[in-house]
């Protein structure tokens, strides 16, 4: 069962309000403001006391009924696009790519999260799940945080996650889901490597994901991601904050596309080979498995496909430009890289 969350103000408004309360403490303008600030401080202390009780043996799974994940049911995927920027902000190229999606879909909202806004969002939205907040805030590798963030956002509010190096084609987002599937599709993913012979290479892309809020599939992805991160930390005998790029191995398998693909397939309760045999190697139409719509490779990853001359795939819905800002020793963008 889903329970509706009280819709809070925008992150910028909440941060502004928080600053106002803090300043009023020192200006002595009102006892009421001072008391409010004390309550906020006590709340923060209480949160971290909860965090301290969460060791690896006490870790819970993310259930739909948990108060941290209370989400109003949605009849369709929300028309909202989520973006995350690094410390350098949005490049000119990224802005142009982003605009191809926003200008062609004027009814869609969008939200751009910075590092600090993303931290605030996770703290506020998952306040009753301290193990989620604790893990997210402790991660020091940007790409690991970005992977976990997209899953948390889609679980909490739904919509579309888009990487900054993705541009949209001419097909409006509203038409990405075929009409016959619109009432049943809750999660939309696209094959990255659809036409290769090696089944182990077949995975869903994570640079573009569409989801209703509160899905068990995304809950499974989050649970598995948290478990994988803590197992990796235990393997190297370090806290989550101590993980570095030399320890984590292949991020694609740890928190990225392959990890997400495995969790979704597990959530569907079917074997990976059943999806592979039914949706690959050469399929040119979207296919619905339960409430998960799987788009052919040309939809989100046209450049990675190898079609025969006589084959006529459909339109590329998006183009991924493979900037790969996370592929460095830091696992992500640095504000002031060493020259």
From TrEMBL:
The keyword Transferase applies. This is Related to alpha-1,6-mannosyltransferase. PANTHER family: INITIATION-SPECIFIC ALPHA-1,6-MANNOSYLTRANSFERASE, TRANSFERASE, PUTATIVE (AFU_ORTHOLOGUE AFUA_6G14040)-RELATED. It comes from Phialocephala subalpina. Signal peptide: none annotated. It comes from the Eukaryota. Pfam families: Gly_transf_sug. InterPro entries: GlycoTrfase_DXD_sugar-bd_CS, Nucleotide-diphossugar_trans, Och1-like.
């Amino acid at each position: 069962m889903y329970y509706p969350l009280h819709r809070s103000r925008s992150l910028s408004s909440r941060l502004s309000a928080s600053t106002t309360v803090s300043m009023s403490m020192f200006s002595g303008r009102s006892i009421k403001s001072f008391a409010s600030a004390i309550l906020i401080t006590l709340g923060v202390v209480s949160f971290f006391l909860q965090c301290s009780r969460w060791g690896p043996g006490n870790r819970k799974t993310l259930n739909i009924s948990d108060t941290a994940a209370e989400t109003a049911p949605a009849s369709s995927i929300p028309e909202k696009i989520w973006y995350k920027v690094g410390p350098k902000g949005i490049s000119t190229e990224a802005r142009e790519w982003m605009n191809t999606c926003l200008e062609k879909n004027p009814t869609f909202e969008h939200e751009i999260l910075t590092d600090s806004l993303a931290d605030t969002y996770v703290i506020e939205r998952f306040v009753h799940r301290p193990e989620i907040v604790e893990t997210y805030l402790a991660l020091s590798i940007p790409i690991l945080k970005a992977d976990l963030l997209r899953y948390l956002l889609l679980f909490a509010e739904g919509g579309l996650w888009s990487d900054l190096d993705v541009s949209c084609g001419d097909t409006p987002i509203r038409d990405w889901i075929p009409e016959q599937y619109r009432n049943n599709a809750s999660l939309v993913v696209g094959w990255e490597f659809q036409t290769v012979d090696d089944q182990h290479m077949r995975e869903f892309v994570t640079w573009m994901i569409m989801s209703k809020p509160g899905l068990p599939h995304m809950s499974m992805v989050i649970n598995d991601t948290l478990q994988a991160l803590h197992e990796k930390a235990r393997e190297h005998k370090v806290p989550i904050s101590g993980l570095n790029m030399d320890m984590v191995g292949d991020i694609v398998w740890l928190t990225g596309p392959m990890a997400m693909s495995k969790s979704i397939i597990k959530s569907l309760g079917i074997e990976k080979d059943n999806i592979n045999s039914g949706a690959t190697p050469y399929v040119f139409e979207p296919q619905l498995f339960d409430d998960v719509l799987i788009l052919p490779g040309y939809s989100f990853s046209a450049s990675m496909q190898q079609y025969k001359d006589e084959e006529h795939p459909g339109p590329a819905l998006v183009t991924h430009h493979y900037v790969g800002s996370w592929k460095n020793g830091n696992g992500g963008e640095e504000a002031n890289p060493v020259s």
